[in-house]
Design goal:
The chain is mainly beta. Helices cover about 0% and strands about 50% of the residues. It has strands at about 5, 10-15, 20-25, 35-40, 45-50, 60, 70-75, 80-85, 90-100, 110-115, 115-120. The strands form two sheets. Strands 2, 4, 5, 6, 9, 10 and 11 form a seven-stranded mixed sheet that branches. The model has no long low-confidence stretch (mean pLDDT about 95).
Length: about 120
């Protein structure tokens, strides 16, 4: 079984930055695709960013492209989400997700999920 532990959420002003981290247990991290999702109140969980097993391919939602960067360090079993130029509409609970599929999917069909970390962006 895999456990995902997230950190780095918090409160920032519009235009500021945050870096989220997700540490995974187990030896399967390097064999999995990883992604970040977010969910705002009364909205469905939506895809934010994804990364392939080797880190060679990344994928972003149109709403965050150019502002967010996903990366991974397989030696540390950790995936990151660098968030710059934050906007109030980025406010949501952010979830780390792990998938054993070889292709990143934007659907919430991942095998393991983190507990979520709150990101709040003030005007």
């Amino acid at each position: 079984q895999v456990q995902l532990v997230e950190s780095g959420g918090g409160l920032v002003q519009a235009g500021g930055s945050l870096r989220l981290s997700c540490a995974a247990s187990g030896r399967t991290f390097g064999s999995s695709t990883m992604a970040w999702f977010r969910q705002a109140p009364e909205k469905e969980r939506e895809f934010v960013a994804g990364i392939s097993r080797s880190g060679g391919s990344t994928y972003y939602a149109d709403s965050v492209k150019g502002r967010f960067t996903i990366s991974r360090d397989n030696a540390k079993n950790t995936v990151y989400l660098q968030m710059n130029s934050l906007k109030p509409e980025d406010t949501a609970v952010y979830y780390c997700a792990l998938n054993f599929k070889v292709v990143v999917t934007t659907k919430p069909e991942y095998d393991y999920w983190g507990q979520g970390t709150q990101v709040t962006v003030s005007s």
